[in-house]
Amino acid sequence: MIEHRGFSAWITSENMALLEIEPRVDEKKHTVTCWIAGPVGKPFVVHWRDHGSKIDSASYIYIDGFKVSGQFLFGKGEELRRGVRVGPREERPFVFSKIDPDDAMGFNDKATNKNVGSIVLEIKLIKRTEVYGLNKVREPPNVIRGHRQAGDVCVKYGETMPTAEQQPTWRIRPHDPKSPGPFVTFTFRYRTKGQGLAC
């Protein structure tokens, strides 16, 4: 678990927290970055906790630069995301996988080099204003390869599974208009076990 500014985040696979290696805090940018070993073939879950800010927050998850809906927290508590929603009652789980030789090179969905190989959780402090419809669902990309080699670990998405029914969301505005950006950002840079990681 990595922590900063009253929030924490961690990633589990098969109900076990993945070890965070060399966590580094940037106090100026309010970010925490670490390395994790992605167990190939295993699904994973992104978790986060508000330790008692007493302020509503909205989370945003980026897998290799691909934006996945997060969740709201209401001043305290814990949330998680197991995958990307692809229907009103369906999702596809996050899965650590290997890049196949025929996976396309280059970048998809305007991902940049710094995004590839990263799971990013941004948390913004917000004020809810009014309820508004359902978020649009979209299919995730097959794989965002970047310039990684065949056999390297990547994130793909598993078979469609049932999940809780999609709920309406809220229109929001920044809690502090003078500081509308992320309150804290957690970045997990994933690699194949043994690929420069002392695991």
From TrEMBL:
Residues 24-193 form the DUF7918 domain. This is DUF7918 domain-containing protein. It comes from the Eukaryota. It comes from Trametes cubensis.
